[in-house]
Amino acid sequence: MSETAQQYRYERKFIVERLTPAEVKHFIGLHPNMFYQPYPPRHVNNFYLDNADMENYYDNLHGATNRRKVRVRWYGKLLGHAQTPMLEYKIKRGLVGTKRSYRLPPLQIDQGFTQSYFQSVLAQADLPNEVHYHLKTLKIVLLNRYYRYYFATYDNQRYRITLDTALTFQRVDQLINQFTHRQDNHRNFVIELKYDVTQDDDAHRVTSYFPFRVDKSSKYVQGIERVYF
C-alpha cells in the first residue's frame, strides 16, 4: 500500500477578480517575501466523491468544524488513460487541515467511466480496510479541472502559493458519461497560501500584502452548485 500523510497546515484562500493570470503572477513576483516558481504549471483533474446525503458538500457549505472531502486526483490530460491517480482525503479540523493520499491503479476516463467501473478499480487497490469500507458508501458526483501555477519562498518553502485558473466543472453520471455538461469559471481565480502551523506567527506579514478578497468556499462547493443547482 502506498500512503502519504501530511502534517496539519493552514490554507488561506483568496478570490481574484478583474485581473489576468499574468497580472496576478507579476503581483506575486513583487511580494517582499520573494516567491519563486519551484515547479512548472500543469493541469489538475479531480473526481469528487460523496454519499447519498451529500454529507461532505453540506459540511463544507456550512463550515462544519470537522469536515472532509474525498477526491481522486491526476495530472495532465483530462480524458483517456490516467496512469497514476491518487485517492485523497482532505481533512479539516477547525482552521487547519491535512491530507491522506493513497495510490490507485490506472484509470480510463471516457464514456465507460461509470460508478460500477470505478468500484471495480477500487476493489483492486491496496487500501486499508476502513478506507475500502468507506468508499463503498460513496459515489462520484463531480469532475473538476484547472490550470495551476506554483510559488514558494526561498526560505525552505516556508510559505507556498498556488494560483488556479481556467476552472471547469462537470457533472458525473452513474451509468454513462459523455462529459458534455460543463460549467466554466474563467472569470475568477483562486489563490491559496499554504504553510505549516508552526509558521502562523509570521503569516500576517504575507497575507497583509495581498489586496485580494478572502474566501472560504471550496471548489467542490462551487462545482456542485454550478452543475446541479
Structural class: alpha+beta
Number of strands: 14
Helix content: 10-25%
Order of helices and strands: EEHEEHEEEEEHHEEEEHEH
End-to-end Cα distance, whole Å, is: 38 Å
Strand content: 35-45%
- Give the tally of structural domains: 1
Note the overall shape: globular
Q: What's the architecture, going by CATH?
A: Alpha-Beta Barrel
Q: What's the arrangement of strands in the largest beta sheet?
A: 2-8-7-5-4-10-11-13
Could you characterize what this model shows?
This protein has 229 residues and is an alpha+beta fold. It has one domain: VTC, catalytic tunnel domain (mRNA Triphosphatase Cet1, Chain A, Alpha-Beta Barrel). Helix content is 21%, strand content 41%. The protein has helices spanning 21-29, 55-61, 115-124, 129-135, 203-207, 219-228, and strands at 3-5, 9-16, 35-36, 42-50, 66-75, 80-82, 86-93, 96-103, 107-109, 139-153, 160-171, 182-185, 189-196, 213-214. Strands 2-8-7-5-4-10-11-13 form an eight-stranded antiparallel β-barrel. A two-stranded antiparallel sheet has the order 6-9. The protein is globular and about 50 Å long.
What labels would you give this structure?
mRNA Triphosphatase Cet1, Chain A; single chain; 229 residues; 6 helices; two-stranded antiparallel ribbon; alpha+beta
